[in-house]
Amino acid sequence: MECVWRARITRDRAGRYLVKFPEFPEALTDGATESEAMTNAADALSETLMQRLKRHEPIPAPRIAARGEYRVAPEPTVAMKLALHEAIREVKAPTAVLARRLDIDEKEARRLLDPKFPSKAPRLAAALRAMDTVVSVGWFHAGKNGRMLANPAAGRHVTRLRPKQAVKISPR
Question: Does the model's pTM come out above 0.90?
Answer without folding.
Answer: no
